Amino acid sequence: MSADMSEVQMDWLDLTAFCEVAKHASFTKAAERMHLTQPVLSTRIRRLERMLGVELLHRSTRRVTLSQPGHRLLRHVQGLRQSWHHAVADVTRGDIRFTVATTIPELCSVAAATNHHFPHLRVEYELRIPGTALPAVGAGGFDAVQGADPLFHNVVPPAQVEIGTIVHEPVWVMLSEQHPLAAHSRIRLHALSDEAWIEAPESIDELMAICIEAGFVPDIRYRSRTLPVVDLIQACNAVSLIQARVPAPAGCVTRPLDIDVRRHIFYAWHSGTPQSIVRFQHDFLRTGYRRLAFRNPAYRQFIESEPQRFAELHNTV
């Protein structure tokens, strides 16, 4: 049964997923390319087929091939992509200064990627301490930022600033691999009530709030970004909160907590920023975050064991 065109609402990421499967003739390879779990990728393809009312792919245990409607759709999508690139080049023609700030060094490549995609832009970036990036957009110092809300608080954007979610990133705990609790797959926060903690100054209020919610006041014995954090943790002298995407250093492990603590990572832009640039950078940062997340074997195992949790955290469905 064909789709009612008046009700079709196309999702470009669904089309991208379809193109990747068609290109590699494999759901597994396409999922790796898009930094998605295979169930999430399959959901996108099924949603596209359901919306169009046709079967786009022939699936077997050994290979994936395009159906006749799939071949036709692929030709149209390839044409759309080419037209889109021509349109972007046309509307962004001119020497435009675009500044972007990020709180995560690995994502600074968003500037180079934007320069490559929009060759007529002059893109600059700056690494910012969390909490200082968003006000810079409202004050006119930056066109866009990647930032993070404090735990338990949603940042209210300044006037003329809009916000889009990149990820709701879980907060875990890092401890020595020799620690008695390291053998647990998930750790009760209250079980760490007698531990010494080490935190960066900007994270202390968040740690206090999390622990008080769990029924104890943490012993924050070390407050510094410059102390040998890993050495202290390896020697079982301290534990620390850590973003789930960060791989554990040698001699340490990271574990999820029994309470669901998430940090809202966002992309914010001035309302006057061209939407083509906003969409490109937002998608680039979301993909970059998924790529970073997969670097941590513990987090990868966590999200692959709970595909729906991955989709919820990373806004992929």
From TrEMBL:
GO terms for molecular function: DNA binding; DNA-binding transcription factor activity. The keyword Transcription applies. Keywords: Activator, DNA-binding, Transcription, Transcription regulation. GO terms for cellular component: protein-DNA complex. Signal peptide: none annotated. Belongs to the LysR transcriptional regulatory family. This is HTH lysR-type domain-containing protein. It comes from Nocardia terpenica. The lineage of its organism: Bacteria, Bacillati, Actinomycetota, Actinomycetes, Mycobacteriales.
